Amino acid sequence: MSDLDQLEKDLSDRIAAAETEAALDDVRVHALGKKGVVSERMKTLGRMSPEERQEMGPALNGLKGRIGEAIAARKAMLEEAALEARLASEKVDITLPVRPEAKGKIHPVTQVFEEMAAIFADMGFEIREGPEIEDDFHNFTALNFPPDHPARETHDTFFFNEKEDGSRKLLRTHTSPVQIRTMMTEKPPLRIIVPGRVYRCDSDQTHTPMFHQVEGLVIDRETHMGHLKGTLEAFIKAFFEIDEVTTRLRPHHFPFTEPSAEMDVGYERVGGELRIGQGEKWMEILGCGMVHPNVLRACGLDPDEYQGFAFGMGVDRLAMLKYGIPDLRDMFASDARWLEHYGFDPLDQPNTATGLSR
Amino acid sequence: MKFTLSWLKKHLDTDATLEEIVEAMVRVGLEVEEVDDPAARLKDFTIGHVIDARPHPDADKLRVCRVATKDGEQQIVCGAPNARTGIKVAYAPVGAYVPGIDATLGKAKIRGVESNGMMCSARELEMGDDHDGIIEAPESAEIGQPVAEVMGVNDPVIDFEVTPNRPDTNGVAGVARDLAAAGLGTLITKPYGEPQGDGYDSPVSVELDFAPGTENACPVFAGVYVRGVKNGQSPKWLRDQLRAIGLRPINALADITNYVSYDRARPLHVYDAAKIRPVIRARLGKEGETLEALDGKTYKIDATMTVIADDTRVLGLGGIMGGEYSGVEADTTDVFIESAYFDPVRTARTGRKTGIVSDARYRNERGIDPASCVAGLAQAVEMVRELCGGAVSNVVLAGAVPDVSKTVAFPPAEVKRLTGIDLDAAEMERILTALGFGVAPGDAWSVSVPSFRPDIEGKADLVEEIARIVGLDQVPSTPLPRLAVVEAPKYSRAQDRVRLAKRALASRGYLESITWSFCDAPEAALFSGRQSNPDLVLANPISSDLGHMRPSILPNLISALRRNADRGRDDLALFEVGPVYAGDGPTDQATLATGVRLSSPVRHWQGAQRADVFTAKADAIAALEAAGAPVANLMVMANAPDWYHPGRSGVLSLGPKNVLAEFGEIHPRVLKAMDIDGPVYGFEVRLDNIPLPKGKGGKTKPALDASSLQAVSRDFAFIVPTAMPAEDLMKAVRGADKKLIAAASLFDVYEGPGVGEGEKSLAIEVTLQPRDRTLTDEEIDAVAARIIAQAEKAGATLRG
Hints:
The complex is a heterodimer of chains A (358) and B (800).
Chain A: H1 3-17, H2 21-32, H3 37-43, H4 50-89, H5 108-122, E1 126-127, E2 133-134, H6 136-139, H7 150-153, E3 170-171, H8 177-185, E4 190-199, E5 210-220, H9 225-240, E6 247-254, E7 257-270, E8 273-276, E9 281-291, H10 293-298, E10 307-314, H11 315-323, H12 336-342
Parallel strand pairs in A: 1-4
Antiparallel strand pairs in A: 2-3, 4-5, 5-10, 6-7, 7-8, 7-9, 9-10
Chain B: E1 2-4, H1 5-8, E2 12-13, H2 18-28, E3 31-36, H3 38-41, E4 46-56, E5 59-69, E6 72-78, E7 88-92, E8 97-98, E9 103-104, E10 108-110, E11 113-115, E12 118-119, H4 147-150, E13 157-161, H5 172-181, E14 186-187, E15 205-209, E16 220-227, H6 236-244, H7 252-264, E17 269-272, E18 279-284, E19 290-292, E20 298-300, E21 306-309, E22 314-317, E23 321-322, E24 335-341, H8 344-354, H9 359-366, H10 372-388, E25 391-392, E26 396-399, E27 406-410, H11 413-419, H12 425-434, E28 438-440, E29 445-449, H13 459-470, H14 493-507, E30 511-512, E31 518-519, H15 521-526, E32 548-549, H16 554-566, E33 572-581, E34 589-598, H17 613-626, E35 635-637, E36 644-654, E37 658-666, H18 668-673, E38 680-686, E39 712-721, H19 726-734, E40 741-750, E41 759-768, H20 777-793, E42 797-798
Parallel strand pairs in B: 15-18, 30-33
Antiparallel strand pairs in B: 1-13, 2-14, 3-13, 4-5, 4-7, 5-6, 7-12, 8-9, 10-11, 16-24, 16-25, 16-26, 17-24, 18-21, 19-20, 21-22, 22-23, 27-29, 28-29, 31-32, 33-34, 34-38, 35-36, 36-37, 37-38, 39-41, 39-42, 40-41
């Protein structure tokens, strides 16, 4: 074995024996450093004869290259091993629980109102709102409730205290005053819905002193009761998200519409569940009618020129029917368990493109 | 109102079934609420025959009976004193539901003896009050025959809602008229006759005594005197009819007035003639007068009420209730029967003032048929003669029957215009005529309105009459024409803020609540600056703690937090977007997005995150941003209202005036008053104050300003007085070079050793964004010097 071969073997053994990157660097310095054994040998090339140089040059360069490669390879191997060791030590218990995040919910009344708005928006209805503390004119007189007529008493009105001039304000008993406010300030044609809080002095299992209505109003020169029927049938079908719904219009009385009607929807009970749509039984679902000529006149519109329909429905009640919510009073109790159970994800934004609900 | 099928058939000749009648009533707008068909309800109860009744071996009062029934011979143990051999009884088999005891029968052993079924009393079958013994059916009854049939309680009772516009349907005759018009049969109501008298003058005379201008309180007052009546129990058919519709039979004369009231919607009143002076007057009451009414209560009379009085006392409240003093008794012999017309409005007011609820008030305030004034007397007189005998005087009458006749010009085309229904003119005429209207032809028909229909004013009312009789199923379902191929947005920007704020808050873990618009008055005071607003106090609240319109949503939400905490839920965030009220005017209502947090997070291995005032601040800013507020321009000030902790609360505003939100820790004193353990963090965002974007503008976004040059960041630490708001320093720093400084963020706040007493250290990282070329060290140093100079001007010193 030549001298060079011996050197190469010695260095190779040292490289293989280096267990750490530091030890390997020591080997590199020993071999290839400025005063390393290979470098020292390279310096001797200058003193050699051309013939010797011709032989030893390539041999030494070859040695230098191979040792360099061996060190690089060993280095890569040591780095890989160190990473493996680090990764092995970095293991976590991924079954540990994440930090809990509170999940917010949207109240069913909000959700159902937005569902209704989506449907009626598609039919061209704009949204109007109005004050809840009202006066007698907007809540009753303009809506054709004669003073002292018993029809007023059916409304269980909340009153405020009488003022010095004898007038007294009240809490609106329905959203219909907004019909009046709209007709008095805007010119037909009108297509509006009016959502909002309404108040009746009544509190028992099925009544709360505050609840929500959506009112609808269409005024133009040709809308008749057939349009009312068509609109409501389309609404009921879209709202309950079922293909077949049986409905009927049944004559009724409201002072502010003539003719007046209530709409019933067919239903059945299957087990404990109430199913809207089909069935032997009828459930009243909303009140409606053609706007009374006296109401049009009170708003400065000529009933021989303008006509149209109005309807009103309980948002809370429709929410209960659609989503199987058993008790009206729970709607306003703010029980977190109830809100979480019956509430809606804020990402569920009702619209007619993705559907009202999932 | 309730009526029986047999009563209806006195007015309507029909072979329609009960179901068909009910269906037709609903179709024409008489909303049936309940149908009670005793034959169906009592179908399980059949006639049995007691073969023998022996004493119970172990009980003195019980008998063991062998009873022949439709189910064969049954052994039944019975405790009734009249259970004896040979009688026909009402047999209830095992499995039958017995309404009077609200129980379903099972096989039983009574004191050791087996008993299969039951023999029922009248009360147990809800056929009467009798509970002294079991029902004894006539001997002619056959085993297995329905008890309801044998005992004559097979008359179905229909209960329906009388809408305020249809006073005529407060009488069975009115219901029959609607049904006849709807094709259910022929109207056979006997026309009103004239009262048949015995040709003597009434010893009692009547007068109207009203000051000018108040005559309409009672325009007509009529009556007859009946001498020598034999009052007492009325016949069974009459008692049965009244009982079936929920009235208590009293005596024949009282029962007759009730019958007429329900038959023709004509209230009457009967006085004991021995108790009244010869002249009775209808007049307005006088202050100080009182009436002890038939309900046993004493009422104060005032000058707005119509009373009937003689020279000595008030005898009754006109059209509402008679007095106890002059009421008829079983032994009354001479009576005076009153029939009048009282102003519905005055009657309604008096009714509300006194709180009296009576059939007379109900009918008078809805409007009775003025034409029935004398005719109603005729019907009563006929019944009195038949049931009580006696001699009837000539009619006495004061005033005149008010003329309510009116005609309505009715173009038949109105039906199509308002309902879309295509209907034959002849059919329209038939319907109107059947309902009692007179029709005179012409381009516009001249339709005369019957006196019993005060609700009919104009042509729309006639359209309704025709439409409800032909049926609303004839209304052609028609879609509304579309106004646009694709509809424009229907929420206004202002309305949409509500939706966006709600969804933003729910996304941050808040549950949406809806609470009452009312609150407790003391709570209102806590959140409105000590004093509640008298304009916002309800006169008739549902309860005292719901007596005030809320000035803030906070009290209701904090109460909700407390209720949930009482159930063990003490880590909770609730919000509500809704109205608050500053006054009772139409513009005093504002829409606020309000949230509260009670933070008691469960422990977590990574450490639980507890909310603080900055959580509330972040929530408020998130709601504002979602609702479109320019949050980068918000000013923060520490002058929140006094229901917040004075040191841990703030106000977010645009400029110094336009407050968009308040936030903070709720004042501990407020929490104590509301009995909740805090801390509670809350905010109120005033959605209405957020400026709306001006005009529509284009949808194009401005070009992206992203420099390719490397940004440079430098840290600074400043010493400032503890009381100095960090925002003041930040503003100064940002202002040092508005062009170069892209961002400045506060990353440390320190007080303690190394920093002087009354001072704090604020550390800020400033990011410089070169615009056109890389910054030189000199340029960076120059900006740093300007930053330090600005900070010093604001009262800070660079920390050494």
